[in-house]
Structures are given as C-alpha cells and as structure tokens.
Amino acid sequence: MDVKICLIGMGVVGTSFLQLLKEKEEFFERKFDLNFIVNSVFEIDGALIKEDGIDLKELLNKNKNIRNLPYWKNGVKPIDFMSKLAINVCIETTPTNHKTGEPGLSHIIEALKNQIDVISSNKGPFYLEYEKIKNLAKENNCILKYEATVASSVPTLSIRKNLIGNEILSIKAILNGTNNYILSRMTAENVNFAFALNEAQEFGYAETDPTLDIEGYDAAGKLVIIANDLLGWSKSINDVKIEGISKITPQAIELAKSEDYVIKHLGIAESNELIVEPVLIEKSSPLNINGTLNVIELQTKYAGPIILIGRGAGGFEAGSAIINDLVNIGIKRQTKS
Amino acid sequence: MDVKICLIGMGVVGTSFLQLLKEKEEFFERKFDLNFIVNSVFEIDGALIKEDGIDLKELLNKNKNIRNLPYWKNGVKPIDFMSKLAINVCIETTPTNHKTGEPGLSHIIEALKNQIDVISSNKGPFYLEYEKIKNLAKENNCILKYEATVASSVPTLSIRKNLIGNEILSIKAILNGTNNYILSRMTAENVNFAFALNEAQEFGYAETDPTLDIEGYDAAGKLVIIANDLLGWSKSINDVKIEGISKITPQAIELAKSEDYVIKHLGIAESNELIVEPVLIEKSSPLNINGTLNVIELQTKYAGPIILIGRGAGGFEAGSAIINDLVNIGIKRQTKS
Predict the structure, then answer these.
(1) Continuous H helices in B9-82
(2) For residue A76, what are the domain limits?
(3) What are the tens digits of pLDDT across the range B263-278?
(4) Which position among A140, A225, B21, B128 has the lowest Cβ density within 10 Å, counted as fewest Cβ atoms?
(5) Contact B303 A153 (CB under 8 A)
(6) Is the confidence metric ipTM above 0.90 for this complex?
C-alpha cells in the first residue's frame, strides 16, 4: 500500500525522521507491504513538492541546498497546499509558540479537516487544544499520533495498548531532561543552581533562554499530554499547578541527602489534579534517575507500578518515535481498507 | 465476536485470570465487541466442561468446591478434549517440569495442532522448545502469546511493536525477584546469603527448594524467551552460560560498595551470547533496582537504552498480562475475519 506523506518542518527532528525513513523504507515495504512516499516537505520559506515522491537521497544530500532543487517552490504554505495534494499522513515537526501552539496548531487542524492522518512531535497544540484536536480527528475519521511529544522514543503513550488487561490509575514522571540534569549535578557536586544551569547550557542540554524548562512549563505540557491520553482526561496546561526548580538551594539538597532523600522535579497526575513541582523522593526509588533521562511511573490497578526510562530528547530519538507512529498508521489503514 | 476459551490450570495465575476476566468482561464486550466464553477449565484430576460457557461467578465461588459442580468430569485430560471442543484460545498456566516442559509443552502442541491460538504463562515449553512451538504455530496459522512468562505484566515482549521505528540491539535484565531481593538485603543489611535467603523464604518470595531461582535457571529461562522474541534468536536454555548467586559473600558486596558499585544478578543477551551471572554495576545505574522488582534494559539503535521496571511475579500481575494477550488476539482475529 502506498502511504503519501507531507512533512512540515525540516529541522533536527524532521531531518532525522527522513534519514531513518530512507534507512528503513525497503524493510517496511518488504515486511509490511508499506510503500512510504514523501511528496511534500514544507519549510518556513517554501516547500519541495513532487507528486510522485521526492528522492530522499537527493533531499538529504548535505552538499546541496534544498532551495536549489528544481521542485522547490518559494513562499508556499502548508495551509494552502493541504487540500490540493494527495496526502495520507501529515507529519508536523515545526517549533511551536507555547502560548498559541502556532503554527503547528493550524497545520494539524487543516490536515484533519482534509481527512489526513496526523503525526506530531509538536507539544503546543496538544497541551493547549487537545479536546478540539481530538474531536476534529474523530469527526474526520483520522488517526492522530504524537508519541514524540512526550519522551521521544520511550513508548509512553503507545504503552496503553500493552496494558489493556490492566488499568492505569495515576502517573508520576520526570519529563524534562534539562531540569533533571541540573538537579543531578546539584546533588552530586553540591553546586548551586546557577552553576549547574550554566554547565547544562555549555553542554547544549539547556537553551540560551531556559525559562520554559526551569520554570516547569515544558514538563507541565508533557504531563498534560500523558494524562489526557493514558487517563482519558481533557485538561490543558492552564490546569496544571506549576513550580519550577530555580529556587532550590544546595542547602535544601544537602538536607534531603542527609535523610536519604533526593529532590526531583516531578510531574504528577492523580485524583483529577495535575502538579509539576520539586518533590522529595527516597534515594532508592526507581524515580531517582540521573542525568538527562526521563522516567514515567504508571501506577496500575493490578500490577503496581510499571516504570519506563529513556532519553527524552534528541533528533533520532524523536525521529524513531515518528517512524513508529507512521508504521502503525500504515498497518491500521491497511487492515481497514 | 465470540471468543471461546479453554483454561488449563486453575492455580494462582489461572484463578487470578478468571477473576480479572469476570471483572472486565462487560467492558471488553462494550469497548471491543469481544464476548469471552470460558467453556472448559482443566485441573490435574479432571475438568469443568460446559459448551455454552461456564458461569464465572459460580466457578469463582470460594464456598463451593468446583469438583462438586454438575459439569465437572473426573479424570479427563486436555489432550483428549482439545479436538472435540469448540475452542478459539487455549490458556496454559500449569506448573512446568523444567527439564521436559511438561505437561505444558504437550498442551501447547495439541492446541496448535488443532488450530487453537495459545496464551501461556508457562516458561518451560518456550525456553526448551521455542523453535518447535513457533514453527507449529506458523504452520497452523495460530497466534502464540506468552507475555506473562517473562516479567508478568511488564510489557517486555509486546513492547517490540512499540519500537518498530527503532531496532533492539541487546538486552540486560534482572529477571528473578527472589534473587534480587536476596542481593538487595545483603547489600542494605550486610547479612550473608543464607540469612537473606531464609528471610526471603519467610516472606514467601523464595520457594522451599529455591534451587531454580538462586542457581539462575529461572532467570536464564526468561532471558532465552526475551532474546528469542525481541532479537529474533532461536536459542534454548542449554545455550545460556549460567552462574547463580549462592557464592556471593558479604565481603564481595562490601568491596563493591566501597567503590560505588553494587552486585546484581544480570541476564545479558548480546553478540549472539546469553549469560546469567552476578555483575558489578554502578550504584547510579537504572539497573540498580531493589527488592523483588524486575528490570529490563533494551539497548536500541536510535534511542540508546529504553528501560522497563515492574513487578515480575504475582497472580494478578500475570493474570493481567494474560488478559492483555487475550484481548489482543481477539482484536486481531476480528480484523482478519
């Protein structure tokens, strides 16, 4: 079966996705009879459009500027082309405005209105307008997947299917690698917050403007997405009680340590409430994960805690989550047709 | 769709499965249009057989001996009835002989030969005769599921589907809760092996004859099952290099501790080799999990390690894994029909 793909955003995640697709496309055709055809790639200033499919080798050739390819169209927007191109799946990987969710939100809405399945690595639309997007997908019989928005390739959302025989009751998670790195360094080296942040910036873990991370907004967005998906809630980021990590002192960390505790920045979804805040946890807890790792603890009804740990960020990590969503959509569409 | 079930073995796991099924059967009918009908339950000395379905409430009534129910048949064996009853799924939960895999192995083979899908919580057949069972399932177009054999409801095997966009390269795991409890206690309390084993026995974590656990045979069996399933190997337990934990001294644990290491009993599947042995790991490693928990670290090609942690044993834990396998078989058979 042919699956025609429109990719919006060719940054780190979009490019990693294309590289992985190129690496594995033959395998997917052989194993699942799925023939993935990328027929459009949108960037901020225009797009590559080729109805019969873009040659991924040409597209990923680092010595060529994609804007010099013969099928580059200057200035075109996805919003204008979505209804004109034959597209089965739209993959949204643009950077998002955390207050409006744009431009990703409009891309997703336009795709769904045109009966195009959507895969997104773009958190904003989902923590701001989940209910709207979900309903729109339902009305248009579209599949909506967004594993990469939460903890990259750690199967946080898709694990729901593996637990049909169980019930997920609540969630505790460390969802921001930058903050976890900073707290881990403060704990291990007894340095202050500013020093650890500076180090995280030098290593490229923290942005130049780290506000969204350290104030807890990024983790809160991911927590909303997980809770809505796994617990069946319909919350937005405005429902989260958020406290960041910038006020944590080396003294507080020392005090915790002396009692065999550590301070971790947890997202908690429990009893219909969403909270992101620094929390004392026992040193021996599986939630005591160091470095930039993410951890998600699902409290289940029949098997206690089930815990997932892995890298929460990175191009190939997110790219492989997108590929996974894509193959699953392909298989689902195959059995339905 | 009706799904007719034969359960073999009504011990802790089999009974927990029935209780969960009773609790959730209405939900599954409503949500997935799957109507589960248990039409036979085999015990060692006979069976309950009722073609139109056994009333689960009656079956689970603790005040009644199932052998007094009117549809109890004394002395009948699953092997004689498998071809006569209308059965879609056979659920195998008998205790196994670790050298022969019997009686589970024969039950599974008989079910597959009769085109009956199989779910098993019974490790023996899979670590002894995986190739044979797998091929038989293939020849007969049967679905074969055995999530509960490895780490109960922790989705160790079913996670392969969540990682289609990635590749699993190798595995490290703690797969035996008894051994992990013993080593955790030896590390925390500086007691010797015999003391910790005795404690584990008192708490019911270790069997009266703990040989299969402490000598590493149980962990080796599970490692074989994971490696065959996730890495596509065709090994048996005879291919595993096994070393148990009974020779570990408090001195060795102290020495490790002083260097910020702990001793854990790991199963490792890497470079076409299977090993179960005590290994030094860093204290801060996510593999450093305490108590009776299991941990499975999958090294992936595109996203580094992805780690799963949870309870590796328990009736409801295994029961919910079986239910999960069952619903997935139901859904698969629905879309195929």
Answers:
(1) 12-32, 56-59, 78-81
(2) 2-152+316-336
(3) 999 999 999 999 999 9
(4) A140
(5) yes
(6) yes
